[in-house]
Amino acid sequence: MMTSLEIMRTAYIGMGGNLASWAGAPEATLAAAALRLESLGRVPRRSSLYSTAPVGFAAQPRFVNAVVELETDLEPRALLEGLQSIELEFGRDRSAGIANGPRTLDLDLLLFGERKISEPGLNVPHPRLAERAFVLVPLNEIAAVVVVPGAAKTVGQLLTRLIEATKAVSGAVVRVRSEVWAGKAIASEAFKDGNEKIW
To answer: Over the chain, what is the mean pLDDT?
Structure first.
């Protein structure tokens, strides 16, 4: 249990999945996993859910993605191990399956305060963060002004650069209404008519 004397750090965790787990469909899996993240710290904010086109291996279902802010007293390596333990709980085995293929749950350590880390099995910021709309769009929703270490740009600036540099595929990133994710209170008026195309 954390005390006020412990140093809390802010991390951002990318979440994704496109296969059902014991918790249910991907959106239910992400909702259950977000609750499990409370065992690693406190989750003060989370983005909307987004339906996203697969990257790197196209012959698979669309993904459901989100980003959560996590306040934690764990060091980066311990946090990574905690994230991988939660993945296993939901049936994700990183040693099996196809690279970039279908999975029940992906928990990626995107940012950890102002730290830049390059160690075996641990790279922060996430090395492909600036190239992935399915990460930057939800991250921008909750952390647009956060400066990405090593990039000297904010999350919002990286997203703008990505939009300008790429020819976006229509419907690649679509914000989705989800009562499972949002609970009883739907977060945004934008959801009142259903899904909202972002990219």
So the answer is: 86
- Answer for the pair 199, 70: CB distance below 8 angstroms, yes or no: no
Catalytic residue among 9, 36, 46, 108: 108
Contact 74, 35 (CB under 8 A): no
* Domain made up of 9-128+170-184: CATH architecture: 2-Layer Sandwich (3.30)
Q: Annotated catalytic residue: which of 46, 92, 132, 177? A: 92
Is 175 catalytic? The answer is no
Q: Identify the band that residue 193 occupies on the pLDDT scale cut at 50, 70 and 90.
A: very low
Question: Is 128 a residue of the active site?
Answer: no
Among 9, 36, 46, 106, which one carries the catalytic annotation? Answer: 106
The pair of structure tokens assigned to 20 is: 């059902």
What are the extents of the domains in the chain? 9-128+170-184
Catalytic: which of 103, 132, 175, 177? Answer: 103
Q: Which helix (H) or strand (E) holds 78?
A: helix 76-89
Cα 51 to Cα 105: distance, rounded to the nearest angstrom: 14
The 10s digit of each residue's pLDDT in 67-95 is 999 999 999 999 999 999 999 999 887 76
Residue 92 appears among annotated catalytic residues: yes
Residues 159-174 have a mean pLDDT of 79
Q: Indicate if 103 belongs to the active site.
A: yes
Distance CA(99)–CA(101), nearest Å, equals 5
Cβ-contact 55, 134 below 8 angstroms: yes
